[in-house]
Amino acid sequence: MKKYFELDPWNIIQNKLEPEDNRVAEGIFSIGNGYMGQRANFEEDYSGETLQGSYMAGIYYPDKTRVGWWKNGYPEYFAKVLNSTNWIGIGVEVDGDKLDLEKCKVENFERVLNMKQGYLCRTFTAEFSSGKRIKVEAKRFVSIVNKEIGAIKYSITPLNFSGMISFSPYLDGDVKNTDSNYDEKFWSEVSKKTEDGQALLLIKTKKLDFYLCSLMKYDVLKQAEKCKCNVEHFEKEKFVGNTVEVRVKENEKVAIVKYVANVTSRDFKPNELIEVGEKILQKAYNKGYENLLNEQAEAWEEKWKESDIIIEGDVSAQQAIRFNIFQLNQTYTGEDDRLNIGPKGFTGEKYGGSTYWDTEAYCIPFYLATADKKIARNLLIYRYKQLEKAKENARKLGFQKGALYPMVTMNGEECHNEWEITFEEIHRNGAIAYAIYNYINYTGDKLYLSEYGLDVLVEISRFWEERVNYSEEKHKYVILGVTGPNEYENNVNNNWYTNRIASWTLEYTIEALDYVKNNETSKYEELIKKLGLKEEEIAKWKDIINNMYYPVDEGFGVFLQQDGYMDKEQILVKDLDPKELPLNQHWSWDRILRSCFIKQADVLQGLYFLQHLYDKDTIRRNFEFYEPRTVHESSLSPCIHSILAAKLNKEDKAYELYLRTARLDLDNYNNDTEDGCHITSMAGTWMSVVEGFGGLKVKNNMLTLNPFIPSKWKSFSFKVMFRGCLIKVKVGKDNIKISNESKKDIKILVKNKPYFINSLKDITICAE
Predict the structure, then answer these.
(1) What average pLDDT does range 380-397 have in this prediction?
(2) Cβ-based neighbours of 726, under 8 Å, separated by 6 or more
(3) Cα(607)–Cα(519) distance, rounded to whole angstroms?
(4) CA 206, CA 174: separation in Å to the nearest integer?
């Protein structure tokens, strides 16, 4: 496997410019703050292979779909987070020669993503055709303290000449998405202005009327002192900037410090954006670059205090887990309940930046354990606020009641346009119900049920009630024509996972109703009236629960992925020619659909969610049957298998699958990192360590741990926040140390034995 980056516990380091891998590096070195994000494009011009990307959270466009829009119930558009104003741009010329790393001789190239302090740094020397050589240092960040602010310090030192260097800082709104269905540009110019040392650009989307105002100010420094320069203004459509020229001597450093504010109509009225943006930008400018950078480092230090995982004895694993945590913290902060988590975050355009079931299935556990409960709560409220749209989605497909949450969405409407997923991958409804259970089970916040949760659970249950049908032949309820989590199977009957998560949702909804009825009587009566819930509905749900059909294979003692699965030729992945992997790049779709091979956890996804309901032997039989048939060609696959392998004491398999998910992007495992990182899979990596190797779960309102340490590690430690307590767990070869870093006592279970830990105290347990 190709080595792209150097190993380092706190940094991602690229020590050579590899033009053919530049898009991979652009994805890896992306920076963001939950409000905006930026791929690691160069500030200066670059004519080589690149995917320019600047993204603003929540700003999207309903791009007209190419296929299916004429079909009844089919989405008319695919929503996309927009490639927005390129705010990092700084054109550079040296005595009239443009700096372009594709055309210059580049030496001593190094790009570093400093994850500890939250900035991107790049250094190199460049030699022009004239023989003139310069040294360049560029450092930039997007602030997690001042969310609208990005800042860049770009320095040049002439190494073998004296001459004229020009900087052209600009804002470029004339951009487009690479995946635009009709090659359309989505932005229109509203206004622009250039002055000496500053400029602004106000643009709006051609649909939905999102406004983005980008504003810049800059200083030019010569030997670290501000200097005055002649300024030339330039403007063209959706583009503004300045050009400044500085005469420098050999070995005399000159720098431009560029401050940018991006403000949107999501937070302010369109007619206020310029005034608000100017105030925000001026405040940042007054603080100065170094103060902003110091604030950034301090804020990241606080984030790491709560979410860091420390691995001793394996730098590769240490780097990988920190990279995953870093990208998660860059992608979502939980401050805005209108936002959610796209599978690529701010690192690329694939999947449109939309919300998938990944959030509920994979991301919520990370935010539950590493942040205040309101963060995960906001992810649930996001779905609650879209409940009416989910009900509309169900009506579009012909259902009389209930809610079907979309597979892909920005505003609650379905905008995925592959029929086998749009119409059939209905198991996503179950993941949303499970997330409510998971949140309440972890936090103990049962008030969420009466405030928001029951509304969603009841409407999802109503959907399942109508989606099942009673089979006279089987004398059971069945669910026909679905696609399960394994997308290498389409339009199947009785996918075990879908049937089971549907039945479980009904069970949990009834349990939740009983809880509110017994503990919040007046609120319960209000909810029943509001929802129009009738006793006969609940009776129907119970009948479905008691009579749901589940396909099984008695010979292997396993739950069948779906009816007819054993009709397929049963070949194991180990028996495939490695040259045929990944299958999706070598086999026809027809061949894949007829094979027994599994893209990602399906039956095992259900057993992961509901492992508290199944004994180890049941989980073991299913794991040993399905994992050898799984090609793990979804980024979401290895983590679930790793967690279950750990639970089953299959330590080598757990570690093998952990490595596959942890360095998925850093090692470009699936040859697709150029499109951006797999953000939601990164949450699965965290789960693999904490839930897998740490054995963390919540049982009977108590935090429980059953840890083991991979043989290649000396120790590992992680922190989790649980009901007001911050707990640090360190697992070594000989002992387990658990520290209570809060002012509240806590009782926990470790390897099924109870331990009481006083506030600000720790205990050490012998590892057995």
Answers:
(1) 96
(2) 306, 719, 720, 740, 741, 742
(3) 31
(4) 13
Within 13 Å and on the Cβ side, how many CA atoms surround 528?
A: 17
Contact 93, 165 (CB under 8 A): yes
Q: Which amino acid is at 417?
A: N
For 556, the token pair is: 């292997």
Active site residue 507: no
pLDDT at 421: 83
Catalytic position from the list 44, 459, 487, 674: 487
**What's the burial of 740, exposed, middle or buried (CB within 10 Å: 0-12/13-18/19+)?**
buried
* pTM for the model: 0.95
CA distance linking residue 624 with residue 723, whole number of Å: 36
User: CA 754 to CA 768: how far, in whole Å?
Assistant: 15
State mean pLDDT over 495-513.
Answer: 98
Residues 6+ away with beta carbon under 8 Å from 471? 477, 478, 549
Instruction: Let me know how many helices (H) and strands (E) the chain has, helices first.
Output: 21, 32
695 in Cβ contact with 684 (< 8 Å): no
pLDDT at residue 573 above 90?
A: yes
Rounded Cα–Cα distance for residues 456 and 405 (Å): 10
Higher-pLDDT residue of 516 and 74 is 516
- Tokens found for residue 307: 């979410």
Model confidence band, residue 69 (pLDDT cutoffs 50, 70, 90) = low
Query: Radius of gyration (Cα) for the chain, nearest Å?
Result: 27
Residue-averaged pLDDT of the chain: 95
Give the pLDDT score at 351: 75
Euclidean distance between CA atoms 498 and 428, whole angstroms: 9
Distance of alpha carbon 742 from the chain centroid: 29
User: Quick one: what percent of the chain has pLDDT higher than 90?
Assistant: 87
Give dist(CA 581, CA 560) in Å, integer: 25
Distance CA 54, CA 26 (A): 12
3-state secondary structure of 390: helix
Q: Which of 322, 356, 300, 355 is nearest to 142 (CA)?
A: 300
